[in-house]
Amino acid sequence: MVESNYDSVIAFIRSLYPRNAETIPLHAPIFLGNEKRYVADCLDSSFVSSIGPYVTQLETMMCERTGAAYAVATNSGTAALHAALLSAGVESGDEVLTQPISFVATANAIAYCNAVPVFIDVELTTMGLCPEHLERFLHSRTYIKSGVCYNRKSGRKIAACVPMHTFGHPVSIQQIIVICESYHIPVIEDAAEALGSYSHNKHCGTFGLAGIFSFNGNKIVTSGGGGMIVTDNSGFAEHARHLTTTAKKPHPYAYEHTQVGYNYRMPNINAALCCGQLEQLDIFLAKKRWIAEAYKAFFEESSLAFVKEPDNARSNYWLNSIMTQGQRERDCLLEQSCAAKIMTRPVWAPLNRLPMFKHCETYGTEHTDYLAQRIVNLPSSVAL
After folding, report:
1. What are the DSSP calls for 160-207, one per residue?
2. How confident is the model at residue 384 (pLDDT cuts 50, 70, 90)?
3. Threshold 0.85, pTM exceeds
């Protein structure tokens, strides 16, 4: 039986969060650790801009957390992805393979390089880039010349592949890496939502040439606004760091810049906040898993299917999601919950449908269309 009244769902969500909360947000930050002390220390030091010890400390903490050899802090996840693509060698007129289900920043960062996104369908299980569709696309629509992959139709070089770990659920990254390596395509992981997520006991964002993370206000760990590039390649890290500091040559006082660079480095005051947040990541992950398990148990007897972490993976459950039986049911749930001041959201509009990207090549939309009509994201804050 198709549900049309979601009072029980609304009541259950309210039971998870403080009884006196008038509005239950989709994902709100919580500050219970050293955040205020570190920010106050930053203010007292007067180092509040892009130079300061908390930036270095945060980069070190991210290396320790993810297992990456190098980390470069940026002022947003979008900036991190843009700089990572440039550091991977993406140039004007190139193509970059990615998925149509993602936040718009994924495709925007590609466009910032004056490159062209190519959208390849997602898996139903992970909601991320589908390895089977990727392999079929590369086999049928590309060729290799002098160790470089080209699109047969457009003639453009395929310079990179950007899979995204949707809502913190690990994409089938190992398969994607193997496929892309056989076509000489570097992989830059969009792990903006996947801090604390693992695939086969390896942290998301550390499988490809580089990975990026976001510390936006709605992420599991926040710096207010900020991002991070991680990599095991020293040359890549050096180039990314150079690009994100306006490509300025190190010098005590002279201003000499070697190329067009970007003012993308994270300010020290944001890094101070993020250090306090990152210290609590294990606590946040444990609370998120508790929330996910509660949702999972509640929806077992429902027509609404709870989205579980993929096999051989451990998700951070950044956003908990369910799938309705169709678009009508999805819209009904969204309307009723939002009227009850519970913030639920659909998945983003598929990127291949947006006016600035609808001209881009798309390979398969069946899974994308199915998910876009059914996904509802539920309140997922750790502030129980």
Report:
1. EEE-B-GGGPPP-HHHHHHHHHHTT--BEEE-TT-TT-EETTEETTSS
2. low
3. yes
